[in-house]
Amino acid sequence: MIASTLSTHFNIKLPNPQQAFTPSSSLEAMSVKPRRKNSSFSAKFRHLHHYHHLWSSFFKPNSCSVRTVLSKVSGDGGMVDATPQEPAAVSDAEEINSSSSTLGDNYVALFVRMLGLDHDPLDREQAVMALWKYSLGGKKCIDAIMQFQGCVNLTVNLLSSESSATCEAAAGLLRSISSINLYRGLVAESGAIEEITGLLSRPSLTSEVKEQSMCALWNLSVDEKLRVKIANIDILPLLINCLDDNDIKVKEAAGGVLANLALSNCNHKIIVEAGVIPKLAKLLKIDVEGSKVIRKEARNALLELAKDPYYRILVIEEGLVPVPMVGADAYKSFRPQLYSWPTMPDGTEIEQTSKGPSRFGASELLLGLNVDKNVDIEEAKINAIVGRTQQQFLARIGAIELNDGKKSQAEFPTDQRLALLPWMDGVARLVLILGLDDEVALSRAAESIADSSINEHMRTSFKEAGAIKHLIQLLDHNSGAVRSAVTHALERLSVSSGDCEVLEAEGILHPLVSTLKHSENSESLMEKTLDILARILDPSKEMKSKFYDGPVNGSKKGLDASRRLDAFVGLTEDRPVSIMESRKELLDSAVITRLIEILKASSSNLQRKAASILEFMTIIEPSMETIMTVDISSGLDAVFQQKVLKDMEADVEGQELDKYALELEEAGLAVSAASRLLTKLLESEKFCQKVDSDHFTKLLCKILKSDIPLHNKDWVAACLVKLSSFSGPNVDFENPVNMEVTLYETIPRLLEQIKLSLSPEAQEAAVVELNRIISEGVVDSTRAVASEGGIFPLVKLIEEGSERAVEAALSILYNLSMDSENHSAIIAAGAVPALRRIVLSQRSHWTRALRLLRNLPV
């Protein structure tokens, strides 16, 4: 409009609008051609000169402050910009004074009106570009623009333009407006997020348009309420794709948006499912010049996601390890051994080739940095050497935490700051911290080791880096917090069988036994201690290999007592004397008494672990003598009479149902472990003479009828069969023990196999065995099949099973049809059409199918 007005009245040809923003744009560039000479021309020309003076002053911002996305200014009028925008280039003429901005403000309304839909697209483009450049002047300029209602809506409308310059200017203006806290909600309400999403979805966009659009989203994502709106399945893929863009500014803006979105926990799930973790982790693992901002934003986003334990696993799987930032003061206690020949991180000695040590440790440093690939050393050991050398060198020169994001996390308390390091550096850094004196640093490092030990690769890396030796030494630390964190780390490392051997060789059994004897320790610490002991002793996996020879005539030949004792305490050639003494310590009566106390008064989880360790001890004759001197029957009785088993008749609803199911599962595991222990104890004649077999038979029969998971009933049934051999013939039971086992363990197990097995052979074997049980006339067997929901899988089997399976299923269904109560269930399962097809096709079992049809009311 201004251009057309000037051209009409004064026949002036203005330069290109984009050129108007360059320093070369000046009054001399204009060609003034008056239409006619008259007395008013000089006045008009003076007016033109003044008009151009206003034009120039309009585009000169009076201030352009640099902001970052998280530099929040208090108050509604605060200004937050994602990244600094380039100010409009203006003439440096000295005659432009402080009144220029005031004069330029008078023409904001003119440009806002030019944004209207009734104007030419080129005029609208020039107007939005002018307003964008003007908005770079700061909050005062933006306030002047926002005085006019509808300005934001008109700007958002321009995002759908086909002109890249228009889209860039519109997105840039929205970026400036959204940098003000007061206007951020108004921008979102105008539909800017949806329009920007549509704009970014276009197949081809210039980097400038992407940058301005992303930065507008970056500013909007500062508002916690708007993050949920931005974090949707339409925008997230666009943001993630922009992380691979060639323009570093676009990358930084996309990373900034994702970092802000990660600040809200409610967004974590959708962000992770969109696949953001591998992309952000890649940005941290590669070093690209000029990428400090994107690395910072990627780190911040991943650290926020890593607060969730499940997402932390995904971050670690990408090769990044969360490492606590403990402060420079904590590293002052680091004392490198400058005058000693270096060893492997796990303590293995390296052959010394030079005659003397280097005074300043240069030879040791070079030895760590230059590992000969031709030497026969495992890759894990090489990585441990290189990582340790690098971290120790940084600690020596005091630069170990300079580049780990310390500044970016300054607002967090010292005990919460974390750095994300590549796994090799992270493992070495954590092991280095374990050698410091600071208690908080020790606790945090041990917890990080526990969190990072998610797979065999990480556990092996910690083992090779020498973490186990440091952790075991810290089990005797004065601080309870340190001991708890260290035990947690050792418990996670003990999952690996290779680490268990190193744990035992380093002498972990003695401090674990000491912890076990102190009943005042917390349940969490006791649980982890029992976990480590159970894995080292490994009663469920290694017993057969340690205490039995190979098969002889289809059976296992047991070792004699002396050989079993030797195997337990380590009197073999491959076990050192220290391990032998440590294992003998486990046979102490105080340890066994403490384990029985845990059976009596602890949670189901602790009961299960204690029963597993006692089961291992029952193999050893000397420990059996000790067990006989204590009241182990009372411990078993407590496990078999847990409260959750007594309350199985109670009505449970809602959330209580989930809690009850969890308690029932834990109780089932404890009962299964206690049943294994009781079965082992029954092999001892002394125990059989002492135990009340009738009492335990009643308890186990009741458990067999309970709702504990079916797989936990296997050992209960086995123990019942074992107990039945010691019971007298006139025991007052409703049903014999074998019948109880059949009804409540065998039949449910067979039906589960028919329902869930993917193998036709396994289904056939299960249905044939079930038919045999029912054909033998076991009391209530058909009722047990019906109550366990066996009718539907049996009907399905007569349609899809083998000939032998169909024959058995038809026989079972015929027996079930003798009870009229089962007729409705058989018909509902679709048996009638299936039976008719068998009869009409005259398959081999069509006569059985016909008899079953005649029994049904059809």
Automatic annotation (TrEMBL):
Q: Which domain of life is it from?
A: Eukaryota
- SMART domains in UniProt: ARM
Q: Where are the ARM repeats?
A: 191-224, 234-276, 789-831
What InterPro entries does the database record attribute to this sequence?
ARM-like, ARM-type_fold, Armadillo
Keyword set, alphabetical order: Repeat
Record's signal peptide: none
Q: What is this protein called?
A: ARM repeat superfamily protein isoform 1
Species of provenance: Theobroma cacao (Cacao)
